[in-house]
Fold this protein.
Amino acid sequence: HEHDAEDAFQATFLVLARNTGAIRKRETVANWLHGVAYRTALKAKRSAARRRNHEARLRLTSPRATASPTWDEVQGVLDEEIQRLPEPFRAAFVLCVLESKTVPEAAAELGCKKGTVSSRLTRARRRLQQRLARRGITLTALLAALSLTEPAGKAAMPRQLARAAIRSGLLVAADSPAAAVIPSRVAALAAGVTRAMLLTKSRLSTVVMLALGVLAAGAGLAARQARGAKEPDEAAAKPQATAKPQVAPKAGNDKQTVTYSGRVLGPDGQPVADAKLYLTLSWSYVKRPSPSPAYASTGPDGRFQFTVPKAKFGDSATTLAATAANHGVAWVDVPMRGKRENLTLQLVKDVPINGQVVDLQGRPVRGVTVRLLHIRAAPKEDLRSWLEAVKAKQEGSHRLEGQHLSGQLMSQEISGLPQKANTNADGRFRLTGIGRERMIVVQIEGPTIATKQVRILTRPGEAVEVPEWMPISEPGLEKPPVVTYHGATFKQVVGPTKPIAGVVRDKDTKEPLAGVTIKSYKLANHPIHGVDFIQTTTDGRGRYRLTGMPKGSDNKILFVPRDDQPYLTVHAEVPDTPGLEPVTVNWEMKRGVWFEGKITDKVTGKPLAGHVDYVALPGNPHLREYAGYEGTFVQRLSWNVRPDGTYRVVGLPGPGILAVVYSDHYLDAHERDDAEGAKKNFVLPMSYNAMARVNPSKNTERATRNVMLDPGETINGRLVGPDAKPLAGVRTHGLTRWGGWEQPALQTAEFTVRAFNPRRPRAVLFHHAEKRLVGALEPPKDKGKPVMVMMRPGATVTGRFLDADGQPRANVALSFVIRLDADGFQAGYLPDKIQTDKDGRFRIEALLPGYEYTLRDNQGYVPFGAGLRSGETKDLGDVRLKSYAP
C-alpha cells in the first residue's frame, strides 16, 4: 500500500536519526539501512493488515494495489533471504546488486580488496540461489524482473516525502520539542523497531550529511517516473492533466549551472513520456567523458528540463540524446554557446540488428562480444542519398560517410544505448534501440577470434561494398581495401587470432614496466597503418598478452606508456610463426626527456588549454637510440594541456618541435613571423598554432619551454552588393584560419575575420549562390578600421568533357577546387562537385576572377581560370583530363 510504504520510509529514517552513533562504520550504512527497512516494513505490513481487517468489519473497501499480491510475496521472500545472509555477504550483495554499484566502488566503500568483494558477492548469490530454489524461485529470474520494474535499491521517492522524512529526522536529531509534530503512526512504527535514543550534538552533523544524501537521492533523480500510479477513476476524470517533468535541483545560481529543456516526440510527432535524456561533450581535444547517466525523464507531455554544473560542460559543444523503449535513439548537437532551451528531439522507428558470427569453416562462434561503438545518421533519416553516391562511385567510403552521414553519436557515452551483445550457441546476436536508416559500427571480439570492426546499415538489404578511398587509375598503384556495409540481417565470417605475448622493460635498468598499453598498429594483409582498436596493458611484472590480432605477416603493434612514464610511443613488427600458438615480442623502452611549460596568449598573458604534440626533427642524432620510434604523430596521442595552461610531454634529447594547437582564433604557425612559427619546408599533417623548437642535451631528464599563441589581428567588415546596399545571405571562406566554407550563410551583412596576419594574408572569400555574386577581402591599410567588400557578378565557364577515345563523359561528377595561394593550398569551391549532362557538357557559375581552379577525378585533372573576368562567360571547348602520371 502506497501510504504504508511512505510511513515505513519515514520511520526507517527516524530509526537512522536515533541510532546514528550505533553504526560502527560509515561504509556499512547501506547494509544497516536494508535491515532496518526490512524490519520496519514487516511491522508496517502487520499493522496495516490489522487495520484493514478492523476496517473491513466496519465497511467494505477495495484497497488500492500497486502490484499483484503474488509479486509482493516474491519480493518479500528475497528480502527475507537477504537478511539471513552473513553480514559480509549481505553488504556485498546490497551494494553490488540492490544499489547497482560496481565491484571497485563497493570495495572502496567497504574498505577491502576488489577480489574479496567479488568472492563475497559470488558466495552470496550461490546461497541465495540455493535457498530461493527450495522455495520455487529462481534468483536470476527474480533479479531480472526487478530490473524491469524499477532498479532495486534505487527507487526514487517523491521530493515532498524526502523533505518530510529529513525534517522529522533533523527534529529528532536536534532533540527539538517540535519533534512532537511527527505523525503518530510514523513515530510509533519507528519506536516499535528500535528504542528511542537521544542524539548528542556530535551525532547531529552526521545526520545532516546523511540527510543531504537522501535528499539528493530522492529529489535529484530527474529520471524518476511520475509519483505512483493514478487510480483508474482519477485518470478518467482528468484525461487532459499533464504532470510537470522532474527537474534536477539547481547547483547554485545561473552563473554556476546550465539548463537544458525541450520535448521528445515519437516518429508520429506525438509526445513520448518517460524518455530518458543523456548529455555528453561533443568532439574536443579533452579526454572523452565516461558514459552519461540519465539526467532527466520526460513527463506525459514529452517535456523535460534539467540543470548541470557549468564547471562540467560550460559553454562547450554538447550532444543531447534521448532514448525510449521500442524506439530508435534521437540526438541533437548543441554548438558552443548555442541554444539549450526548447530543444526538440524526435525518436525514430527501430529496426533490430540480427547477426550471426561464424568461423572460416562456417561454424557458429559462441561467446563472442559484439560491442556498439558509434551511430551515424543521414539528413532526414534517409540513407538513399548515400546509396546513390555509393553507386555513382564518386568518393571513397570515409569521404562519403562525412558528406552524407554527418550526424554521429558515440554510443559508448550514452548509457541508455545497448553497449554490447553476446552470441549464443548458434553464433547469433541481436541489437535494438538504434533506429532505422542509420549506419552503425560494431566491434566483434573474442578470446579465439581476430577482432573486427564492422559497419551495418539498419535497413534490410544486401551488403554494399565501397572502396576505402577512390583509387587513381594508374598501373602498379596499390588498390584500396574494400569496406563492407551489411544489411540489418547478416552473417559475419571471422578468422582465428594469433596471440602476442611478452615483457616490457626499461632499456637501461632492465626493470619491468607496468601499465604500458600494447595496441594494434597494422593488421596483417591490410594496407593501413594506425589501426589501434585492439589493446591490452602490462601487469606489475611488465607482462602482457594481446589477443585479437589476425594470423598473418606484417602485423605491427604499438607500445604506449602511461602519461606519467617518461617514454615515447614506439612500434614493433610481429613475426609470423607457424600455427596459432602465441608469438613472443619482448620490448625495451628507453627513457626520454620531460618537457614542461605553460601555454599563454601572447597579448593578454592568460593561460590557454588545447594540446601539445612532440616530433623529433630529421637528423636528430639520438633517433637511432630509440628503436621503433619514427616521430610520426599517429604513434602519439595528444597530450592535453591543463586548464591553467601548464603541460608535460615526453620527447627526445636533441632537436625537436613542440607543436601546440588551441583554436582557429589564433594564428596558424605557418602565418607567424616569430620564433614559434613554422618554416615553409617543414610540413606537419595538421594545422598548429605554434611550433616551438627544443634541443636538450643528452642525459637531460627535464626541460622547460613556455609557448605563446598569437591572436593576430581582427578585421570587422560589411558586405554590399553592386548597388552598394548591404547584402546578407553570403557564404564565407577564411573568416577563421582552419574553416572551409562556413555554414550557414551570414544572416546580416556584417562579418568578422579573426587571427589575420596582414604580412602573410590568407584568402578570405565570399559567395552568394542565388545572386551569383562573389567577392574577396583586401587587407585594410589602416589597422583596426572596418572594411567594405563589394560583391560583383562572377565569371561563368562552360565546356564538354571527353574521354581518352574522344567520347563524351556523360553523367559523371568531378571535384571542383580553388587554389588559394602560391604554395598550392587548395580548398573546395561552391559547389564542390560538377555534374556533366548526357552529352558530357558542364557549366560552372559564380567564379571569382584572379584565381586558378581545378576539375578532377580518379582518372586525372584539368586546371583553368587564367584571364577570367567578372560577369563574362568563357567556353573551354572540348576538355580532356590530364593524367596524374609524370
Notes: The CA atoms of residues 71 and 142 lie 10 Å apart. The chain has a mean pLDDT of 80. The longest strand covers residues 826-835.
